[in-house]
Design brief:
It holds the Pfam family Peripla_BP_3. Residues 3-56 form the HTH lacI-type domain. GO terms for molecular function: DNA-binding transcription factor activity; transcription cis-regulatory region binding. The chain is of the alpha/beta class. The chain folds into two domains: 5-47, lambda repressor-like DNA-binding domains (434 Repressor (Amino-terminal Domain)); 56-331, Rossmann fold. It contains twelve helices and twelve strands. α5 (72-87) packs across α12 and α8 packs parallel to α9 (187-203). The N and C termini lie far apart (79 Å).
Length: 331
């Protein structure tokens, strides 16, 4: 016996329209949604996806495109997005660009071909600059990296302010030779570099910006060149993300540098292992669950209110001071 939406509505004691809204992931009363999902399981209802595609321009699927799945930040955000999408009856197509603008363009085209309902995107630097010119028939919500000239909703943290916090922390500990390590091709790296530079200027000390390539071996060569000469080595580092931080720690280990005796460290992201390095690493913890939740909510809101004003949500990270800052020679 074929089970239809009307059968689910009868068991849940709601209208067929309500069942359709729940199955489409649209906002409904949580209790009503739970009743509908319970009725779906009780009746064994399975949507006819082929028929749904013919009736609608879109599928009950969203796309999630991140810039670097190696980065625990994107892993955590992806987990949150998937969990919330599942609760709303949505499926997720996941893609990873490795900070490659060509892959990003290919995946956006894939989303068009799959007729997704919408896309959550962490754009590459080049992609952020051209997102305003991307033609799509679905809404896009940007995470981690905003695009000022695009009419896309976005969820970001105040990268410049958070980088400045790390500089001020190290300065108060007595460090004056503070180098900043930032990605060469990311919007996030550029914003954090700007915050680092302004904070160094306000502290009255010269900055040392070190552009670090995305590829691991190249990154480690750049970091080795920075740290191998003790006479020129900075006393402290501001590191832009946890992937880069791992390269710093590999190089420090190879050079037999002890954290924080020989080198003070601060970074973005807070992973469980970080509290066991150098007396605990001082970090900016990013609100990953809040970012993922806000992105899905904004995407659903945009579907229901296509003409509403573009929104940019700026969240604050949490500074966690541990022992890796040490004490600078000037303290």
């Amino acid at each position: 016996m074929n089970v239809g939406i009307k059968d689910v509505a009868r068991v849940a004691a709601v209208s067929p329209a309500t069942v359709s809204r729940v199955l489409a992931g649209r906002p409904v009363d949580p209790d009503m949604r739970d009743r509908v999902m319970a009725a779906v399981h009780e009746t064994g209802y399975r949507p006819n996806l082929a028929a749904r595609r013919l009736r609608s321009r879109h599928t009950n699927t969203i796309g999630l495109i991140v810039a670097d799945i190696r980065n625990p930040f994107f892993t955590a955000v992806s987990r949150t997005v998937e969990a919330i999408a599942y609760d709303r009856g949505l499926r997720v197509i996941f893609c990873n660009t490795d900070e490659d603008a060509a892959k990003e363009a290919m995946y956006l085209q894939l989303m068009q071909e799959e007729r997704v309902t919408g896309v959550i995107l962490a754009p590459t630097r080049e992609g952020a600059d051209r997102i305003a010119h991307v033609e799509s028939d679905f809404p896009i919500v940007l995470i981690d990296r905003a695009a000022p000239n695009a009419s896309c909703d976005s969820v970001v943290i105040d990268n410049a302010a958070m980088a400045a916090k790390l500089v001020v922390h190290l300065h108060r500990l007595g460090h004056r030779r503070i180098a900043g390590l930032f990605g060469t091709d990311t919007v996030t790296g550029r914003e954090r570099c700007d915050g680092y530079g302004r904070a160094m200027e306000e502290c009255g000390i010269p900055g040392q910006v070190v552009p670090v390539p995305h590829e691991r071996e190249q990154a480690q060569r750049v970091i080795t060149a920075l740290l191998e000469d003790a006479s020129r080595r900075p006393s402290a580092l501001v590191v832009s993300n946890s992937v880069m931080l791992q390269s710093v720690l590999r190089v420090a280990d190879a050079l037999e540098l002890e954290i924080p005796r020989d080198l003070a460290l601060t970074s973005f992201d807070n992973e469980p292992w970080m509290e066991f390095v150098g007396g605990g690493l001082s970090v900016i913890e990013q609100p990953v669950e809040e970012i993922g939740r806000a992105a899905v909510t904004m995407l659903m809101d945009r579907l229901d209110h296509a003409d509403c004003v573009t929104r940019r949500v700026v969240l604050a990270g949490r500074f966690i001071a541990r022992g890796s800052g040490g004490r600078g020679a000037e303290a």
